[in-house]
Amino acid sequence: MSRLDDLAHALAGLGTRLHDQRLVARPRDVEEVAACVRAANGAKCSVSVVGGNHSGYGQTGDLVLEMSNFTEMQREGSCLRVGGGVTLEPLALFAQAQGLAAPLGTAPTVGLGLVLQGGVGHLTRSRGMSVDSVRALQLVTCTGRVVEVSGDEEPELFAGAKGCAPNFGVVVSLTLEAAPFRLCASARRVFPASGAALRTYMAWAASLPNDCSADCCLYFRDESALPGEGDLLMGVYDFNFDAGASGEVPLEKVLWQTSRESLGPKELMAHEPYLLEQPEGICKTGCLSTRSFFVRACFVRKDADIADVLVECLEQAPSRHCFVHFQHTGGAVAQSSGVFAAAEWSVVISGAWEEKTEAAAAAVRAWVLGIVQRLLPSSSGTYATDLGPQDVALAKHSFEPQRLERLLDLKRKWDPENMFRHGFPLAQLGED
Ligand SMILES: Cc1cc2nc3c(=O)[nH]c(=O)nc-3n(C[C@H](O)[C@H](O)[C@H](O)COP(=O)(O)OP(=O)(O)OC[C@H]3O[C@@H](n4cnc5c(N)ncnc54)[C@H](O)[C@@H]3O)c2cc1C
């Protein structure tokens, strides 16, 4: 019998199914999660977890655990305790109904993989990354043990595993600090893109106070949606969480603008200049159904001299659906727990392609990775959340050396056989 047969036999009562040489289970409670992991341990099988399913890595273990039954949410004082299968929009709506908001990402269908591994969104500059608001986890470790992890219980694992938690087990529930939220004022302005315009945006955005943030997106004009001139555009979206005014990026040639509107926590999602202008409705579905994506991101410092390079790279992009998004961080990130080294932006390089050919995919991947290489010297590292087993070279730049050593010690202690090996390649970083 193969290991998978052994595992299927051990999990016979749990309604598992075989798909693509993998066993897929949808546990209903923490005991079933523990039973699945114990059985995988006994059969020497790897385990991966599907949360919001935006990375693809969750689908690749010998045993795939789908967390869609873990969507419960409750308020506990100033915190929200949520199940390991919750996605961001229901979470933001639940918080909003309590008059609260937690710092989350900008796409509504993304799941807790974002919160466990970083989490950059429009509240990041004022409140830190999502991972900085995590107060406790309920984790099933590789032996099937259920562990409560917080500043009081298993504090070493709690502090150390931030930003890398999927490497240590299955998160059954998570407690997230939230805070009262006033409406935020927001407006979008679109300019012709150039190195000089991007430099002006960068200098202006870096000077904003912490309760304001401003994202910028370099993208190609979509003829069906945007009137105006110029092919490569620069959309700047500013968010003001205080009563004062953030002002506007000092550029005169505006192609298009929206009037200032008030946004609640839920509306803070799906506000990205490029995505808003796509006719396929990503803002409703969270993904573009007809395109494939390849994305990598770097944390870029405020003094980075990258404006001309980026515009030049975009002008040579292999597809009109390639774009670069500056997600504004800085502010509170620099003052918080420091999971990732402080930087002014998470610069997200996205390549999308429509033709379902390996050549199209390879061209886009090479373009994205080429930009990352050019940004690395001006960055404080790569963003771990996008990285998988094939990304060892990039993963070396995700955590500062001291933090990486600590993560590796924890990995040896809590997952010595590397059962949870299908996302960020932590164990491989210790093999050199
Ligand atoms: C359209 C789109 C928009 C995005 N926008 C943002 C953004 O605004 N800000 C940002 O910071 N990032 C963003 N990302 C990146 C995103 O944070 C990562 O892709 C993240 O890993 C996705 O998490 P998920 O739960 O949706 O995906 P999954 O593929 O389900 O999970 C990602 C990883 O986390 C693990 N995981 C998920 N849930 C659990 C759990 N309960 N227990 C243990 N491990 C778990 C999985 O095993 C996998 O390794 C975006 C990605 C996409 C595709």
UniProtKB/TrEMBL annotation:
Gene Ontology MF terms: FAD binding; oxidoreductase activity
PROSITE patterns tied to this protein: FAD_PCMH (PS51387)
Domain of life: Eukaryota
Protein name: FAD-binding PCMH-type domain-containing protein
Species of the source: Effrenium voratum
SUPFAM superfamilies: FAD-binding/transporter-associated domain-like
Family according to the record: Belongs to the oxygen-dependent FAD-linked oxidoreductase family.
CC cofactor: FAD
Keywords, ordered alphabetically: FAD, Flavoprotein, Oxidoreductase
Domain FAD-binding PCMH-type: 16-181
Transmembrane parts of this sequence: none
Cross-referenced InterPro entries: FAD-bd_PCMH (IPR016166), FAD-bd_PCMH-like_sf (IPR036318), FAD-bd_PCMH_sub1 (IPR016167), FAD-bd_PCMH_sub2 (IPR016169), FAD-linked_Oxidoreductase (IPR050416), Oxid_FAD_bind_N (IPR006094)
